[in-house]
Each structure stands twice: as structure tokens, then as C-alpha cells.
Amino acid sequence: MAEQLGYRVIGTIKSVKGTCSWGHKVGDKIELSGHNAGGLCGFFYHDIFPYVIMLQFGGGFPEDWGDPEVVNLECMDRANAVAIELRRIK
Fold it and tell me: Less crowded by CB within 10 Å, the N or C end of the chain?
């Protein structure tokens, strides 16, 4: 197995509005990277991929926008929206 590049990124499901057809539940923790979708729904992974890569390789938003180690996102299914927090682990 290849060595992990960059930082670890952990996604935590924060909320589910309606019913997630992929079965994600509040509190689920998923390790993500550029090479690992971690079992996340493909549509959702596609949407959050740029943020996973940003966190994995040391990028971030300015500190005055909030915690540069964390980003909160939602899936595109507005009727059954799943919210995830991505956190860089150093």
C-alpha cells in the first residue's frame, strides 16, 4: 500500500435532512483523500473533492473566515441534504 501523502482528512456527518439514499447517518466518520472516497456517495464526494484536496495538502481559508483546518459543506440533494464537516488532522 502506498504511503499517505499530506494530512489526513476526516469527514463527520453533522446532519441529514430527510433520508440519505446512501445511508449516511449523523455522527458517521469517514476518512477521505484524493485516492479514497471512504464509502461516501459518489455525487457528494465529487462535490467536496476540491476541499478534501485543499485540506489534504495544506491549503485553507483565511483565519478571519473561521478555522482554516475545517470546512462545512452540504450535498446537492436539497430534499435530503447531508451536511459534512471536513477536518484536517495534523
Answer: N
